[in-house]
């Protein structure tokens, strides 16, 4: 008769008591096990009925244990969510994404690397020598002005362009040199919709025997079309930089719905001025960069500008505001 067992199981208030009841009835030394062992002493004609009764009792006890176990677990689960409102909507999972500047920089690097340019870099805290002197910039050039450039007491400065990396690279390299250098540049500009005092450039330099103006034009046109699309119109406008001759500014034609197309400046560029090679040759003490042996082109693109063109961003300050409503659009 399993009645004792069933009431003990029903009374169990936790899993430990329930387990004790299980051992007491079904365990090796349990009562049902003992009752089974007693069967061999019975007369043969009573055995089948006895065996059947044992089976019924065993399955009743097993079912009761399983049922009680489920009930106890349910109670424990209930307890663990007490005080938690299960009807509340889940909290939004915020997913990270890359910043538009990172996206455009990575794409620019990818295109230029396919064209054979290797990555180079240099310090953001620069010497006047690498930022200006070695780049053929006269002492009285306005870019050197304390009004335009951040100087440290040491006389060092925050680089005003990534062109200093041209010099850093050529000081150590052997031609041919074909590098790009993305990085920050700093100017004491008034901050507005198109100017930041910290901005991002991507410098490029190719120096070898017999590099021509056509190489510069072809390279940059190819690059800008790879970035903005095959049909992108590109314009080279004559300009002046102390370290290139001839020099150009590059514009890209921007089409905005409902507006007349506009030319937007994206880069400065030109053929490396022989004066840069002459000064480098003096500081290196060899003739690998002698202007009689090598020519080259250089360019410096505004990465912030490229991002603004790519996504129609009207105010450059959005790139540094960290407004998630803006940033979310790029992930
Ligand atoms: N350094 C120039 C600027 O910041 C751009 C430039 C780079 C021009 C290389 C010519 C060659 O405006």
TrEMBL record:
Pfam families: Phe_tRNA-synt_N, tRNA-synt_2d. It is found in: Cytoplasm. PROSITE patterns: AA_TRNA_LIGASE_II (PS50862). GO terms for molecular function: ATP binding; magnesium ion binding; phenylalanine-tRNA ligase activity; tRNA binding. Coiled coil: none annotated. The keyword Nucleotide-binding applies. Keywords: Aminoacyl-tRNA synthetase, ATP-binding, Cytoplasm, Ligase, Magnesium, Metal-binding, Nucleotide-binding, Protein biosynthesis. Its cofactor is Mg(2+). The keyword rRNA-binding does not apply. Mg(2+) binds at residue 245. It catalyses: tRNA(Phe) + L-phenylalanine + ATP = L-phenylalanyl-tRNA(Phe) + AMP + diphosphate + H(+). GO terms for cellular component: cytoplasm. Residues 110-309 form the Aminoacyl-transfer RNA synthetases class-II family profile domain. Its EC number is 6.1.1.20. Binds 2 magnesium ions per tetramer. GO terms for biological process: phenylalanyl-tRNA aminoacylation. Tetramer of two alpha and two beta subunits. Belongs to the class-II aminoacyl-tRNA synthetase family. Phe-tRNA synthetase alpha subunit type 1 subfamily. PANTHER family: PHENYLALANINE--TRNA LIGASE, MITOCHONDRIAL (PTHR11538:SF41), PHENYLALANYL-TRNA SYNTHETASE (PTHR11538). This is Phenylalanine--tRNA ligase alpha subunit. It comes from Rubritalea profundi. The lineage of its organism: Bacteria, Pseudomonadati, Verrucomicrobiota, Verrucomicrobiia, Verrucomicrobiales. The gene is pheS.
């Amino acid at each position: 008769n399993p009645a004792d067992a069933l009431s003990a199981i029903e009374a169990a208030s936790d899993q430990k008591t329930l387990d004790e009841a299980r051992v007491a009835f079904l365990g090796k030394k349990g009562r049902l096990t003992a009752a089974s062992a007693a069967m061999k002493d019975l007369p043969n004609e009573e055995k089948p009925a006895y065996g059947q009764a044992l089976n019924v009792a065993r399955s009743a006890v097993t079912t009761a244990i399983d049922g009680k176990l489920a009930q106890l677990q349910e109670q424990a689960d209930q307890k663990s969510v007490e005080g938690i409102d299960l009807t509340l909507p889940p909290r939004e999972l915020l997913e990270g994404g890359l910043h538009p500047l990172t996206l455009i920089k990575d794409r620019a690097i990818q295109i230029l690397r396919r064209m054979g340019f290797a990555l180079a870099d240099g310090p953001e805290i620069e010497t006047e020598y690498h930022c200006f002197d070695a780049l053929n910039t006269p002492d009285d050039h306005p870019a050197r002005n304390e009004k335009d450039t951040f100087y440290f007491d040491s006389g060092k400065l925050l680089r005003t362009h990534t062109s200093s990396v041209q010099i850093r690279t050529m000081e150590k390299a052997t031609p041919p040199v074909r590098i790009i250098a993305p990085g920050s540049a700093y100017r004491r500009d008034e901050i507005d919709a198109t100017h930041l005092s910290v901005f991002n450039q991507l410098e490029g330099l190719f120096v070898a025997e017999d590099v021509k103006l056509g190489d510069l034009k072809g390279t940059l046109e190819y690059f800008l079309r790879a970035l903005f699309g095959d049909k992108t119109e590109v314009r080279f406008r004559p300009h002046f930089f102390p370290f290139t001759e001839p020099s150009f500014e590059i514009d890209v034609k921007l089409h905005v719905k409902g507006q007349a197309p506009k030319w937007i400046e994206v880069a400065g560029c030109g053929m490396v001025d022989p004066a840069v090679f002459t000064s480098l040759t003096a500081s290196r003490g060899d003739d690998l960069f002698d202007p009689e042996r090598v020519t080259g082109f250089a360019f410096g693109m505004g990465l912030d500008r490229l991002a603004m063109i790519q996504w129609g961003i009207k105010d450059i300050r959005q790139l540094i505001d960290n407004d998630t409503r803006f940033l979310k659009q790029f992930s």
